[in-house]
Amino acid sequence: ISVPPTLLFTALATLPDVARSLTLDAKEAGDIVYVLGTTRDECGASEWYALHGFVGTSVPRLADASATFTLYTALHAAARAGLVRSAHDCSDGGLGVALAETAMAGRLGIRADLAKVPALGTHDPRRLLWSESLGRLVVTVRPANAQAFETLLGSDAMAIGEVLAQPVVQIVQGPSPVLTVSVSDCLVAWKRPFKA
Fold first, then answer.
1. What are the two backbone dihedrals, phi and then psi, of residue 99, each rounded to the nearest 5 degrees?
2. Would you say the pTM of this structure is higher than 0.70?
3. Buried-most residue among 55, 74, 136, 168 (CB within 10 A)?
4. Of 71, 67, 45, which Cα lies nearest the Cα of 57?
5. pLDDT digits (tens, 9 = 90+) for 135-150
6. What is the DSSP letter of 143?
7. Which of 179, 19, 8, 3 minimizes the C-alpha distance to 95?
8. Is residue 43 within 8 Å of 132, Cβ to Cβ?
9. Which parts of the chain fold into alpha helices (H)?
10. Rounded Cα distance, 76 and 89, in Å
């Protein structure tokens, strides 16, 4: 696989208790799926645009570094309190890929409603799924911990769906279906470049 020249940053930290680390995999059916942060119409240079042969000009920009730092600090507090079951960034491929990867890693399904995704400047389901706006995360939380989690995160956390026992990624926008794909099909597509 040819990889274009890429600037990489590496950060290291100690983890006193590995049992308290956060992983990206969905853990249990019935857990609530949250999106942290706002999705903007920022598909420029995205994986979605590249797939269709476009580059675009609306590239992701960190709109408010201070607000993002506050969000991450609150998430850290929630994780330390044992309220977070999984967390995954929405970088390459945006929210759609983050939801699929969370489902694939846990071999569980996810149902998500795009009408509940915090967004500015777009309601187009394709842009909500594939925009690579910075600072966003997909997080899963036990229903019993939802109130405490929402109290810590405030309006920065929006419940958009739930983890399913059936291994399928099901995306709707209000009453309208957007896409349904099995986790096994997601895994085949995810592994395909490594078999080429």
1. -65, -45
2. yes
3. 136
4. 45
5. 999 999 999 999 999 9
6. G
7. 179
8. yes
9. 47-51, 65-80, 94-106, 125-130, 146-153, 183-195
10. 14
